[in-house]
Specification:
The complex is a heterodimer of chains A (427) and B (335).
Chain A (H helix, E strand, L loop, with lengths): L1 H15 L6 E7 L6 H22 L7 E7 L4 H11 L12 H14 L3 E2 L17 E2 L5 H15 L8 E7 L2 H17 L2 E7 L7 H10 L3 E5 L3 H12 L7 E3 L6 H5 L9 E4 L8 H11 L14 H24 L6 H9 L2 E2 L1 H6 L9 E2 L12 E6 L4 E4 L8 H18 L8
Parallel strand pairs in A: 1-2, 3-4, 5-6, 5-7, 7-8, 8-9
Antiparallel strand pairs in A: 9-12, 10-11, 12-13
Chain B lengths: L2 H34 L6 H16 L6 H8 L12 H22 L9 H23 L9 E3 L2 E2 L6 H11 L7 H23 L1 H11 L1 H6 L4 H27 L9 H11 L4 H26 L5 H15 L14
Antiparallel strand pairs in B: 1-2
The chains are: A alpha/beta (427), B mainly alpha (335).
Chain lengths: 427, 335
């Protein structure tokens, strides 16, 4: 009896304790709170991809993956608590999913030697790897997005935006203000008039802003919104009969959530993206077979192919590819966070690689280096079809204006380096 | 017509409309505070819960589906039918009455005689509990809300074309008013008239006022405190449903809907916590004030996005001169 009890106790301890041999991917998700509608599909996509790798491939390089989820509620303090409580699990890479949490974690992850991936959000100048050694924001950042929108409009207007009016409707927060400097520089370069229209959190009431737009009659509106602000903005734009095809959202304003509430009125609305849309990719067959049909989906399995599910899956794919790169570099299967950082810094995403993963043309091709943690900054444009209720990619992944963005990244990262006495990581 | 004057009138009119929407939320707070002295922190979540319940019933969604599936290994999500909007509203009202009864039976009955701060803390707990229940019951995903009398005859959205055309012909400038705002104003007017008539001319309404005036005196003449509080919470639940419909129709039903309560606070501070007409007038003043300030000063000189803080500043200004709010009962402490 004593022997049985002892065995049971050891088994229980082993089951309860962390399995150090796993490749651990913390997921700082937000399935509750005002932004839950956006947080759930991303967290599901992130978790489902790793579940599929475990079921289909036996993990990565023969080592099983483990997703450790921690609920942040999109709250910065909770996000930091999540980081502190999960970093001891052998966490390989953090995806904070919030610009506020990212700013708090940049010094912490650097000090702890754990890499962080802020894909399409966070501190834009973290693209400068010489200053931000442990933060990566490939394949695109906020400034790439702003420039991508202007490049798209240039293309639509025969390369000339001179005399055009472009308004930026933005969430009145650090996130929403990110593109202002870039758009100001671009307005000087291309001769368009630039107007800022801030919207206070949470953005449920935007009558003043859209009456202002009705009066000012801008040719185009670019939006950097999140959560309920997006849905209200799309509805208000429809209310004042602003042409939807001239209304462009950043990728955080371009999911099904943002347009479904407005119904047919949202038809034609556009949004930037740095990854593919829809479920017409071979990888989703594997997700269905190995994850959903096996009853192991993180959610109800009904989010597959939605914009934010795809983004979570894409983030997981990039993390898994960085693990493979790290395993190749260091010749070990069970990698450390420091080795993961090396893998991320040597990451190369090619079309052949994406096709082999069941994600042909799903995202831009790019290479990461010590100096460049932001990739090539290629962005595409999607458009909402209200009848079919689906987003369609209407452009190739095109380059952004690095002549404008490059110096801004240099300037901002140099200021951060000076504040924090960073001498440069790339020799 | 002078363009600047036309813009100002347009902003003023839209401010009135926005104020009506704020007042709709504030009304729920007033009803409960008036009858029980409880500042109901959960009023915003009640609007969210009511709207989620309405959409869930309309779409034939199985409540607690995820929980049921997780426990029993089933895969049920929908009943396979849809319910007409009016029937769904009726069923939602029944759910809100059941909620009112449960709140009274399991929370506030045990807190009779406690300090107001304890009751307030209880409503904070209630808010988080209700948010969790709403999540479990209907899921966290965003839901489109559409209340329709018949096929294609739903809550109208978008610019009122008739008004725009008429004002353009008469004044040379077509004014913008959102159709949904017009409907909200009519509904709010009916709601206020109905609530005032209920309070003035029905037995239950008079009992409600008696409880509001003095709990002990009302008890001594045979008024059931429990019944009145269930009645008041039910009415607040109904008002929350109306607010949830109007706000949810704009943005879809999602968890941020509960934040509409933030818009009601300056209205309450200004209009008073105990007056139904005060909630309406307060809402209109806040709506017009914040919109005009944003148009005339905020956007041109301060970089915009002034509405949130200006509403509170305006309310604070009123508080300095009239602490009980414009229509609130004067606070007299006898010692």
């Amino acid at each position: 009896m004593k022997y049985k009890l002892g065995t049971a106790a050891i088994a229980a301890i082993m089951a309860a304790g962390p399995v150090m041999a796993d490749l651990v991917f913390p997921s700082l998700s937000y399935r509750t709170g005002p932004y839950a509608a956006g947080g759930i599909p991303f967290a599901d996509g992130y978790a489902d991809y790793f579940t599929m790798l475990n079921a289909r491939d036996g993990g990565i390089g023969g080592v099983m993956t483990r997703v450790v989820e921690c609920e942040t509620g999109y709250n910065t303090e909770k996000g930091v608590e999540c980081y502190e409580s999960t970093k001891g699990e052998g966490s390989l890479v953090y995806q904070p999913l919030s610009t506020g949490i990212t700013y708090q974690l940049i010094p912490k992850t650097t000090a702890d030697g754990i890499p962080m991936h802020t894909m399409g959000y966070g501190r834009t100048s973290a693209a400068n790897g010489d200053v931000f050694s442990h933060t990566f924001n490939y394949p695109a950042n906020y400034w790439n997005g702003a420039s991508g929108a202007i490049n798209y409009l240039l293309e639509q207007n025969g390369g000339d935006l001179n005399g055009k009016k472009i308004a930026l409707v933005y969430h009145n927060s650090a996130y929403g203000k990110e593109p202002i400097r870039t758009l100001t520089e671009l307005s000087a370069k291309h001769g368009f008039e630039f107007k800022e229209v801030p919207v206070d959190h949470p953005g449920q009431e935007q009558k003043s802003q859209w009456l202002q737009i009705r009066r000012d009659k801008p040719d185009y509106v670019i939006m950097y919104g999140w959560g309920v602000m997006n849905q209200v903005a799309v509805q208000e734009a429809a209310n004042i009969r602003f042409p939807m095809e001239n209304f462009i959202g950043i990728w955080w304003s371009g999911s099904e959530n943002d347009v479904l509430a407005a119904g047919d009125a949202a038809d034609g609305y556009k949004a930037l993206t740095f990854h593919g849309v829809g479920d017409d990719f071979p990888v989703f067959d594997d997700i269905q077979k190995h994850v959903v049909d096996a009853g192991n989906a993180a959610g109800a399995g009904d989010q597959i192919g939605t914009v934010l599910y795809n983004r979570g899956l894409y983030a997981a794919m990039l993390a898994a590819e960085a693990v493979k790169t790290a395993q190749e570099i260091h010749g070990v299967a069970e990698i450390t966070p420091a080795q993961m950082r090396d893998g991320m810094e040597a990451l190369s995403i090619t079309e052949e690689k994406m096709a082999a993963l069941g994600l042909p043309n799903f995202g831009p091709t790019f290479d990461v280096s010590c100096e460049n943690h932001g990739g090539t900054g290629l962005v595409g444009m999607t458009q909402w079809d209200a009848t079919a209720k689906e987003w369609t990619l209407i452009s190739d992944f095109a380059p952004s204006d690095m002549d404008v963005i490059g110096p801004l990244i240099e300037e901002d990262s140099a200021a951060y380096a000076a504040e924090n006495n960073i001498e440069g990581n790339c020799g | 017509m002078n363009e600047q004057l036309a813009f100002t009138i347009e902003v003023f009119a839209n401010g009135l409309m926005a104020g009506v929407l704020y007042a709709l939320v504030a009304l729920g707070f007033v009803l409960i505070y008036k009858a029980s002295g409880i500042f109901n922190y959960a009023q915003g979540v009640m609007a969210l819960f009511a709207a989620m319940t309405l959409v869930g019933i309309q779409n034939g969604q199985v409540p607690f589906a995820h929980l049921i599936n997780a426990i029993f290994g089933t895969d049920v999500h929908k009943f396979g039918w849809s319910v007409h909007s009016f029937a769904a509203i009726l069923l939602t009202v029944i759910v809100m009455i059941a909620l009112a009864w449960a709140v009274q039976r399991f929370v506030f009955r045990h807190l009779v005689g406690q300090e107001p701060i304890i009751l307030f803390m209880a409503t904070i707990g209630l808010a988080y509990f209700l948010e969790g229940v709403a999540d479990l019951m209907w899921g966290s995903e965003l839901k489109a809300l559409n209340v329709c009398a018949s096929e294609g005859n739903c809550l109208p959205q978008g610019m009122n074309v008739w008004l725009e055309g008429t004002t353009y012909e008469a004044l040379g400038y077509g004014f913008f008013i959102d159709n949904l705002d017009i409907v909200a104003s009519i509904v709010a007017a009916i709601l206020v008239i109905g609530l005032v008539m209920f309070a003035q001319y029905t037995k239950q309404g008079r009992a409600m006022r008696a409880v509001a005036d003095d709990h002990q005196a009302a008890l001594s003449v045979g008024v059931s405190l429990n019944f009145i509080w269930v009645l008041v919470w039910s009415l607040a639940g109904f008002v929350a449903l109306v607010a949830g419909i109007m706000w949810g129709a704009k943005s879809g039903v999602q968890f941020s809907l509960s934040l509409i309560a933030l818009k009601a606070l300056p209205v309450l501070m200004l209009g008073g916590f105990t007056s139904i007409p005060g909630a309406i007038v307060g809402g209109l003043i806040i709506g017009v004030g914040e919109k005009l300030f944003e148009f005339l000063i905020g956007a041109p000189y301060l970089g915009g996005a002034t509405e949130n803080w200006f509403a509170y500043m305006l309310a604070l200004l009123f508080l300095v001169f009239r602490p009980q709010g414009l229509f609130g009962e004067k606070i007299i402490e006898r010692v």
